[in-house]
């Protein structure tokens, strides 16, 4: 039996265009993975928190400008939950000076917008691989 290779990704941004561009960036790891990623979207940080804790995606990519609760609040909340989120969190920053907030919030990686899509994809792959979160083929 071959295990599912699907990786779930939650995109959090109030801007549909930003979510679309982020999905294109993240989608570039599909070739290495050998299967399509499954994307979900949340239009603000509050919805992102609820979706992350309910659905437990392997990856969250949050836009710093996520309205209501922002990307930093989202990351901090899901990391500090009584059942902490253990997936990868990437934050897209408006300015490099906010890197300390991304680190404080528990993000695994952060990039100043607009990020280099290859750099984001490579870092995301490294994080998934390092944590053993890439789906493996299993034979029974």
Q: What is the CATH domain class?
A: Alpha Beta
What percentage of the residues does DSSP assign to strands (E)?
Answer: 15-25%
CATH architecture group name: 3-Layer(aba) Sandwich
Instruction: Count the beta strands.
Output: 5
Rg measurement, Å:
14 Å
Q: Supply the CATH superfamily name.
A: Response regulator
Q: Low-confidence parts lasting 5 or more residues at pLDDT below 50?
A: none
**Sequence of secondary-structure elements:** EHHEHEHEHEH
Count of all domains: 1
- List the strand order in the largest sheet: 2-1-3-4-5
CATH topology title = Rossmann fold
End-to-end gap = 5 Å
What summary fits the major beta sheet? 5 strands, parallel
Mean pLDDT: 90
Number of helices: 6
Instruction: Report helical residue fraction.
Output: 40-55%
> What general form does the structure show?
globular
Structural class: alpha/beta
Model description:
With 140 residues, this protein is an alpha/beta fold. The chain has a single domain (8-129), classed as Rossmann fold (3-Layer(aba) Sandwich), CATH 3.40.50. Helix content is 41%, strand content 18%. A five-stranded parallel beta sheet has the order 2-1-3-4-5, sandwiched between helices. Helix 3 packs parallel to helix 4. The longest helix has 14 residues, at 117-130. The model has no long low-confidence stretch (mean pLDDT 90).
Keywords:
alpha/beta; globular
Quick overview:
By secondary structure, this protein is an alpha/beta fold.
Question: Topology of this protein?
Answer:
Blueprint: E1 8-12, H1 16-27, H2 30-33, E2 38-42, H3 45-55, E3 59-63, H4 71-80, E4 88-93, H5 99-105, E5 109-112, H6 117-130
Parallel strand pairs: 1-2, 1-3, 3-4, 4-5
Helix pairs in contact: 1-6, 3-4, 4-5
